[in-house]
Amino acid sequence: MDIKEILSIILLSLLIICAISVNFTKKLLPAVIIFMSYSSLMCIVWILMESPDLAITEAAVGAGISGTLFLMTLKKIEAEDRKRDEENIQKN
Protein backbone atom coordinates (compact mmCIF):
# COMPACT_ATOMS: atom_id res chain seq x y z
CA MET A 1 0.00 0.00 0.00
CA ASP A 2 1.57 3.28 -1.04
CA ILE A 3 1.17 6.73 0.51
CA LYS A 4 -1.48 7.81 -2.02
CA GLU A 5 -3.78 4.94 -1.05
CA ILE A 6 -3.30 5.60 2.66
CA LEU A 7 -4.06 9.29 2.15
CA SER A 8 -7.15 8.40 0.12
CA ILE A 9 -8.45 6.14 2.88
CA ILE A 10 -7.87 8.83 5.51
CA LEU A 11 -9.59 11.49 3.38
CA LEU A 12 -12.56 9.26 2.61
CA SER A 13 -12.92 8.47 6.32
CA LEU A 14 -12.89 12.19 7.11
CA LEU A 15 -15.52 12.79 4.42
CA ILE A 16 -17.80 10.21 6.01
CA ILE A 17 -17.26 11.76 9.43
CA CYS A 18 -18.10 15.23 8.07
CA ALA A 19 -21.21 13.96 6.29
CA ILE A 20 -22.52 12.26 9.41
CA SER A 21 -21.60 15.04 11.85
CA VAL A 22 -23.28 17.79 9.80
CA ASN A 23 -26.55 15.89 10.16
CA PHE A 24 -26.27 15.65 13.94
CA THR A 25 -25.10 19.20 14.58
CA LYS A 26 -27.75 21.23 16.41
CA LYS A 27 -26.40 24.72 15.72
CA LEU A 28 -26.18 26.26 12.29
CA LEU A 29 -22.72 27.86 12.41
CA PRO A 30 -20.88 24.60 13.18
CA ALA A 31 -22.96 22.89 10.48
CA VAL A 32 -21.85 25.48 7.91
CA ILE A 33 -18.22 25.11 8.98
CA ILE A 34 -18.43 21.31 8.70
CA PHE A 35 -20.01 21.68 5.26
CA MET A 36 -17.16 23.92 4.14
CA SER A 37 -14.66 21.41 5.54
CA TYR A 38 -16.38 18.65 3.60
CA SER A 39 -16.03 20.66 0.38
CA SER A 40 -12.36 21.35 1.09
CA LEU A 41 -11.68 17.66 1.72
CA MET A 42 -13.55 16.76 -1.45
CA CYS A 43 -11.34 19.20 -3.34
CA ILE A 44 -8.26 17.31 -2.12
CA VAL A 45 -9.86 14.00 -3.14
CA TRP A 46 -10.44 15.34 -6.66
CA ILE A 47 -6.78 16.37 -6.82
CA LEU A 48 -5.70 12.86 -5.77
CA MET A 49 -7.94 11.46 -8.50
CA GLU A 50 -6.11 13.70 -10.98
CA SER A 51 -9.14 15.85 -11.82
CA PRO A 52 -7.90 19.41 -11.32
CA ASP A 53 -10.87 20.97 -13.10
CA LEU A 54 -13.31 19.35 -10.66
CA ALA A 55 -11.07 20.28 -7.74
CA ILE A 56 -11.09 23.94 -8.72
CA THR A 57 -14.86 23.89 -9.20
CA GLU A 58 -15.39 22.20 -5.83
CA ALA A 59 -13.16 24.73 -4.10
CA ALA A 60 -14.83 27.70 -5.76
CA VAL A 61 -18.44 26.61 -5.53
CA GLY A 62 -18.54 24.19 -2.59
CA ALA A 63 -16.31 25.89 -0.05
CA GLY A 64 -16.23 29.37 -1.55
CA ILE A 65 -19.52 30.65 -2.89
CA SER A 66 -21.89 28.27 -1.09
CA GLY A 67 -20.10 28.70 2.21
CA THR A 68 -20.16 32.48 1.89
CA LEU A 69 -23.87 32.46 1.04
CA PHE A 70 -24.62 30.20 4.01
CA LEU A 71 -22.67 32.48 6.36
CA MET A 72 -24.40 35.60 5.02
CA THR A 73 -27.80 33.94 5.42
CA LEU A 74 -26.92 32.86 8.95
CA LYS A 75 -25.90 36.43 9.81
CA LYS A 76 -29.20 37.76 8.46
CA ILE A 77 -31.21 35.17 10.41
CA GLU A 78 -29.43 36.12 13.63
CA ALA A 79 -30.06 39.83 13.00
CA GLU A 80 -33.77 39.19 12.44
CA ASP A 81 -33.91 37.05 15.60
CA ARG A 82 -32.36 39.88 17.61
CA LYS A 83 -34.81 42.37 16.11
CA ARG A 84 -37.76 40.12 16.93
CA ASP A 85 -36.50 39.64 20.49
CA GLU A 86 -36.15 43.40 20.98
CA GLU A 87 -39.71 43.92 19.69
CA ASN A 88 -41.02 41.28 22.09
CA ILE A 89 -39.23 42.94 25.01
CA GLN A 90 -40.69 46.34 24.09
CA LYS A 91 -44.21 44.87 23.85
CA ASN A 92 -43.96 43.38 27.34
Helix and strand run = HHH
* Oligomeric category: single chain
- Beta-strand portion reads under 5%
Instruction: Quote the average pLDDT.
Output: 92
Measure the end-to-end span. Answer: 68 Å
Overall SS class: mainly alpha
The global form is elongated
Helix content: over 70%
Question: In words, what does this structure look like?
Answer:
The chain has 92 residues and is mainly α. It has a domain at 26-77. The chain is built from three helices and no strands. The protein has helices at 3-24, 28-48, 52-91. α1 (3-24) runs antiparallel to α2 (28-48). The N and C termini lie far apart (68 Å). The mean pLDDT is 92.
Labels describing this entry:
92 residues; mainly alpha; 3 helices; 0% strand; elongated
